[in-house]
């Protein structure tokens, strides 16, 4: 059965994610992806143009899926504190649930101007989503600087959790307290 271009692209992105999870991002090439995805090299290049294009597309999809899930989970919050708890839980759950592939992928995006721009764009989309979520609570919303601090702390702490330095619930409690000190 022949796949649509969109279905083939999704299939290749799924294959790329699995490859990064298994072998790390440093071994990712479009040629290896084509082989794993069962397509020709020209098709892989048609979809992503370059390795950087593949990594950017993969990260954009990862971020969009997380933002969609986060919005769904947090829209049910009845208070800013509950929203902060849900946001912290959602963020930590997303990173730890994605495993080392997410951390490796984000690290790989720091290598070029093109991919760095994608990473910054995703960070901005996250901050904007947070502002929208907390806007419903009026003046009780965390400031932008607080949200930026939350994002930076969340990234660093979840990477430490993967090595066992911190428990997930400990991180969730800390991050929630950054947004709304108890």
From TrEMBL:
Domain named HTH tetR-type: residues: 6-66
Superkingdom of this protein's organism: Bacteria
Pfam families for the chain: TetR_N
Coiled coil: none
Entry-linked SUPFAM superfamilies: Homeodomain-like
Keyword DNA-binding in record: yes
GO MF, any single term: transcription cis-regulatory region binding
Keywords of the record: DNA-binding
DNA-binding region: 29-48
Name assigned to this protein: HTH tetR-type domain-containing protein
């Amino acid at each position: 059965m022949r796949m649509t271009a969109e279905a083939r692209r999704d299939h290749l992105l799924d294959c790329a994610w699995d490859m990064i999870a298994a072998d790390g991002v440093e071994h990712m090439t479009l040629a290896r992806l084509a082989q794993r995805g069962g397509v020709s090299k020209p098709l892989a290049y048609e979809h992503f143009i370059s390795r950087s294009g593949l990594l950017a597309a993969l990260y954009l999809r990862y971020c969009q899926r997380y933002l969609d899930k986060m919005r769904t989970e947090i829209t049910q919050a009845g208070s800013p504190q509950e929203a902060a708890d849900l946001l912290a839980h959602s963020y930590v759950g997303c990173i730890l649930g994605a495993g080392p592939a997410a951390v490796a992928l984000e690290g790989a995006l720091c290598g070029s101007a093109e991919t760095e721009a994608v990473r910054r764009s995703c960070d901005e989309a996250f901050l904007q989503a947070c502002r929208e979520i907390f806007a419903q609570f009026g003046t009780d919303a965390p400031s932008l600087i607080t949200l930026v601090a939350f994002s930076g702390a969340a990234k660093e702490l979840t990477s430490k959790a993967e090595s066992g330095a911190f428990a997930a619930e400990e991180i969730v409690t800390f991050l929630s307290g950054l947004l709304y000190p108890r």
